[in-house]
Specification:
This protein has 9 helices and 12 strands. The chain is α+β, with helices and mostly antiparallel strands. It folds into 2 domains: 141 residues, Gcn5-related N-acetyltransferase (GNAT) (Aminopeptidase, 3-Layer(aba) Sandwich); 181 residues, Aminopeptidase. It has a 12-stranded mixed beta sheet, sandwiched between helices. It binds coenzyme A. Keywords: Acyltransferase, Transferase.
């Protein structure tokens, strides 16, 4: 789940084998799966290289945590999520596959969220199945009863032919939600931005736009935390079984600290209603370790304030603020559920173009 979302539930009645008992066993090479200690820099470096090579193969300009960002993610305090990296090592001692399993700690306590990556040269020998077996084992040990994963499919590729889709299907997962990743090239033509800002102002003029970079100002923190939690309830999640996240100021500050430690600068614009309440917000992250890129994170307009073109107003203002502060940024990635018409319309108007589909697959254990 990233910014917004779709459905496309497909069932696979005749395929739900246990891990290691069929799928991938045909040409199985012996591999050992073991947990990686985040404090071990050399091991994390090997983990990251293989994880990245597996997950991002075949994607255009793929978005991913850098090694430096991953190290922080696995080492920094996070009272909402526990993350465990793991690797598959073959008989020669080479890392041939890697994964990560996440255990939400505040809500979604039924869930284990995971990703598995096997570089193309090591595929179809049972490595993915062995890694998945580890996920199932860890999920069961933690009392989790539902598994959730993502598969990224390049635009224009028939989904049924994509390895991750075939793998998820054979393991008994069903497709619950599809988001599309779109990318915007920067800078956006200033005249185009001014035209869009003018169009939004026709209906959004009662609202004041406030932008900042870095942590949320104290005066807005409580309301802002509430808006952050609302995204998981309001963004369309298709048939995903995912509970609403509950955010308070402590969670917000922890997330901001972690993001800053990762070397990412946040650019946020909020819309303030005449009575002082926050009507909506949008947020961009600019990673120090990936110069030239930015990522669109949440955008949300409170239900009571929809229909005022605030989505457009917020995004135009935030894009302008980003380009002024970081003229070196040439592209922004965003994710939207395919059925999220209003958000997609805003992004298309801004000039975002489709890169790939991010499918969310889930199964009960
Ligand atoms: C999906 C992925 C992890 C599979 O890794 P792998 O080591 O090739 O997996 P296995 O060898 O254990 O394959 C298990 C079964 O999945 C199915 N499968 C895997 N890749 C397939 C493909 N390209 N076409 C058809 N079926 C495929 C097969 O049924 C296979 O069993 P078989 O080889 O006996 O026919 C790997 O392709 C990958 O890293 N993809 C990119 C990331 C991703 O999508 N991860 C999955 C979600 S976390």
């Amino acid at each position: 789940m990233r910014e917004d979302n779709d459905v496309g539930l497909q069932t696979n009645p005749d395929a739900s084998p246990e891990p290691g008992n069929g799928a991938g066993a045909r040409n199985a090479a012996p591999v050992n799966v073991s947990v990686v200690d985040p404090a071990d820099e050399t091991a994390m470096r090997r983990w990251h290289a293989v994880f990245h090579a597996g997950l991002m193969a075949g994607l255009q300009d793929p978005p991913a945590w850098t090694l430096q960002e991953s190290l922080v993610l696995h080492r920094a305090a996070d009272s909402s999520m526990r993350r465990e990296p793991f690797v598959a090592v073959d008989g020669n001692g080479d890392v041939v596959g890697a994964g990560e399993v996440q255990f939400p700690l505040r809500e979604n306590l039924r869930l284990a969220i995971f990703e598995i990556g096997v570089p193309p040269e090591h595929r179809r020998r049972g490595v993915g199945s062995a890694l998945y077996g580890h996920v199932v084992e860890r999920a069961r040990a933690e009392g989790r009863i539902s598994l959730l994963t993502e598969v990224n499919v390049p635009d224009g590729t028939p989904h049924e032919e994509w390895p991750g889709v075939a793998f998820a299907r054979i393991l008994g997962f069903t497709l619950r939600n599809t988001e599309l990743r779109r990318q915007l090239r920067l800078p956006v033509e200033p005249l185009h931005l001014r035209t869009l800002a003018g169009k939004a102002a026709q209906r959004a003029s009662d609202y004041r736009l406030v932008s900042w970079s870095g942590p949320c100002p104290a005066e807005y923190a409580e309301q802002y935390a509430e808006l952050k939690g609302r995204l998981s309830a309001d963004a369309p999640l298709g048939d995903l079984d995912y509970e609403q996240e509950v955010w308070d100021v402590a969670r917000l500050r922890e997330a901001e600290d972690r993001t800053a430690a990762q070397g990412r600068t946040l650019f946020t614009t909020v819309a303030v209603a005449p009575d002082g309440t926050l009507a909506g917000h949008t947020q961009l992250a600019v990673p120090r370790h990936e110069p030239g890129r930015a990522y669109q994170w949440d955008t949300l307009v409170h239900a009571a304030h929809r229909g005022h073109r605030l989505g457009l107003a917020l995004k135009v203002a935030n894009t302008q603020a980003l380009s002024e502060a970081h003229p070196e940024v040439t592209r922004v990635d965003t994710w939207n559920a395919v059925q999220n018409g209003p958000m997609v319309a805003v992004n298309v108007e801004l000039g975002y173009r489709i890169m790939d589909a991010c499918q969310e697959w889930q199964r009960e254990l």
